[in-house]
Design brief:
The protein is of the alpha/beta class. 54% of the residues lie in helices and 17% in strands. It has helices at residues 41-48, 53-73, 84-88, 92-103, 112-124, 127-135, 168-175, 182-205, 218-227, 237-248, 252-259, 263-266, 269-282, 295-306, 316-330, 336-351, 353-356, 360-372, 384-394, 402-413, 416-419, 424-438, 470-487; strands at 4-11, 15-24, 28-38, 77-82, 107-109, 138-143, 148-154, 157-164, 212-216, 234-236, 287-289, 451-455, 458-463, 490-495. The radius of gyration is 25 Å and the shape is globular. Helix 8 packs parallel to helix 13. Strand 7 (148-154) and strand 8 (157-164) form a beta hairpin. The strands form three sheets. A six-stranded mixed β-sheet has the order 8-7-6-9-11-10, sandwiched between helices.
Length: 499
């Protein structure tokens, strides 16, 4: 296969970045050019909720230059993503329109969970190091300018991910007006970070042996590179702490001179290194790995995987499912009924591939809806659907966008009346889930060995189970009306006759 050229653009909270890549089976993913422009979009967003006119003009000028460079390289494709500063800006739609008109570029605002998964795809491209790090327990500390994401792996399985609103730029803006001295400032930032980390440690890290920390984040990576400590290898805890102690003694102008950075970038170094120090201390980390990736590297890795140019070994869909199962476990909703529901729903979905018009991503959303459909019972049995909807809407799932999470919440809650036919995809998934749910109404120990196939334009569901199924039959007859209306195919349940 010929080598493709790809461009990745990150419209970040503190900088605009362009990466030009060559991608091919023999060469892998190779960055051949990199352009970076510092622009503190997040400063406006985090303080006023909007990005001002001057910054928008500066951003459009830089992105127009990026488009010109991409044209020079004759890239085959590009993806441009915007993160927290744009995500939280009230005038984001106006900005996206202005970028399109001025530059011709389509910029997509991605959710926090999408952004983090893209970063993980870049980390996972270092397969040997990544697999070795997560095999015995690790946390990925993904420090952005607006927030930090901690994602926990135990025995190679992603089990939890939480977002904390103490990114480097956000904390700098929160403490910029403080008149406290350096020691007091370090103490205040540490206390702020420790409060959330202590809760996180008690809820999610207890009884787990987490020794490795995979650190992602431009400021700390830049410092380690300049200090000569970074070579994509493991850094021991003592080395990190020694480096930390040396850096926090420096004034802003000394940091600028020592690490050859401008004054705007130097202002976020102190909060960045404090945040990492607190994570390493609170979670008792012994080994730190800095893979040296940026969001643009993740965007290139995502494009490579989506285009199937290079086969990747790590199963990110499996991570999304594993996280969802752990959420269900947290709310005591991981029993046999959820397993039966998932098996039956997937069976119906797969049998109807040529009919429902849905794709593999929709199949994943259906599975997540099945896994999480009972979480609301932990709050209220009587009002379980409403509680389920609220829990899912409020719970971030790595790799799932905000809109997808709302869809999962709607489908899992299973309220046909509230759906009001406004979302055809959600309606189809809910129809499949409701029909599948009726097949295991009494939650017998076995799944009743259902077989699913489409014949003569009918969905035929058959089982050799000959025991009493009165509740399943009644539920099936009730739910198939909605299913047939939405999916446009008749559903029939066949089973052995009881003598």
């Amino acid at each position: 296969m010929a080598i493709k050229r790809f461009a990745a653009i990150d419209v970040g909270s503190f900088e605009l970045e362009l990466g030009i890549y060559e991608i091919g089976k023999t060469i892998g993913i190779r960055r051949i050019d990199y352009i970076r422009h510092i622009i503190a979009l997040g400063k406006d967003t985090y303080n006023t909720g909007k990005i001002n006119y001057d910054l928008i003009e500066e951003m459009c000028t830089v992105l127009r230059d990026f488009a010109f460079i991409m044209s020079g390289y004759q890239v085959d494709a590009y993806r441009a993503y915007a993160t927290s500063a744009m995500r939280e800006a009230k005038n984001r739609r106006i900005i996206l329109d202005r970028i399109k008109v001025r530059t011709g570029l389509d910029v997509k605002i991605i959710s926090n969970s999408e952004q983090r998964l893209i970063n993980y795809k870049a980390v996972a491209s270092f397969e040997d190091n990544f697999n070795a790090s997560i095999e015995h327990g690790a946390v990925i500390a993904d420090l952005g300018f607006g927030s930090v994401q901690l994602t926990l792996f135990n025995k190679s399985e992603m089990i939890n991910s939480q977002n904390f609103p103490f990114g480097a730029l956000r904390i700098h803006e929160m403490t910029a007006a403080s008149s406290a001295g350096r020691d007091k400032l370090i103490e205040n930032i540490s206390k702020m970070v420790d409060y959330d980390l202590e809760i996180y440690r008690k809820l999610f890290v207890k009884n787990k042996d987490i020794k490795n920390c995979i650190c992602i984040g431009d400021p700390i990576l830049y410092l380690f590179r300049k200090a000569g400590l970074y070579n994509n290898k493991i850094i021991k805890r003592d080395n990190f702490i020694e480096f930390y102690e040396n850096v926090i003694k420096l004034e802003a102008d000394e940091i600028e001179e020592k690490f050859e950075i401008n004054h705007r970038f130097s202002s976020i170094i102190l909060p960045s290194i404090i945040i990492y120090r607190r994570i390493i201390e609170k979670l008792d980390i012994s080994d730190i790995w800095l893979p040296g990736i940026q969001l643009i590297d993740g965007i290139a890795a995502e494009y490579t995987k989506d285009s199937r140019i290079i086969k990747t070994m790590h199963d990110f869909s499996g991570d999304i499912i594993a996280i969802s199962r752990n959420i269900a476990k947290r709310y005591k909703a991981d029993g046999n009924d959820s397993e039966c529901l998932e098996v039956n729903a997937v069976g119906i979905f797969d049998a109807m591939k040529k009919i429902h018009g849905l794709n593999d991503r929709d199949r994943l959303l259906l599975r997540l809806s099945c896994i999480l459909h009972n979480v609301g019972r932990f709050i209220s049995i009587k009002n379980a659907p409403a509680a389920t909807k609220n829990i899912i809407e409020s719970t971030e799932i790595i790799g799932i966008s905000h809109d997808e999470r709302l869809l999962i919440a709607e489908v899992a809650a299973g309220s046909i009346e509230s759906l009001n036919y406004r979302d055809v995809k959600a309606a189809k998934l809910m129809g499949i889930l409701k029909l599948a749910q009726s097949l295991s109404r009494t939650y017998k120990e076995q799944v009743k060995d259902y077989k699913f196939k489409v014949e003569a334009e009918k969905l035929v569901i058959s089982t050799a189970f000959s025991d009493d199924m009165i509740f399943e039959i009644l539920a099936f007859e009730a739910n198939k009306v909605y299913f047939e209306e939405i999916c446009g195919i008749q559903a029939i349940l066949k089973r052995k006759r009881i003598y």
